[in-house]
Known about the structure:
The chain is an all-alpha fold. 82% of the residues lie in helices and 0% in strands. It starts with a helix and ends with a helix.
Amino acid sequence: MWQQIFLAFIGLSAGIIIAGGVVGLLIGLSIIPRYAGITHTSEHMLLYEDVTLLGAVFGNIFYMYELSLPLGTPFLALYGLFSGIFLGGWILSLAEMADVFPIFSRRIRFTEGMPKVIICVALGKMAGSLLFFWKAWQ
């Protein structure tokens, strides 16, 4: 019994740490501050950050323990809407991150060999994907 309590504590702690990292990345990529700026509600920034962290923690708990909420189709539509907004925020922030690379390469005067770097990144991604599927990691 103590072993199960310990494992539950470790699992919950790890989920909270991962959720904190995700929220930190969301804030670091300026997704939440941008939404607050667009809606002119920046005075509630701490509330937005807390709610985002709680959503990540509860999302981990619901995923890990396979909990379900029988709230019907309206809740599913609302969940789909918020999931779409969340995914759109990630896509926009990643698009902005892609704009950083040309600026960074000009700043460090990296003018030659960019195609080689892109090919190496693509080969590394391909090798990682092949290893993932070959070892059947899931």
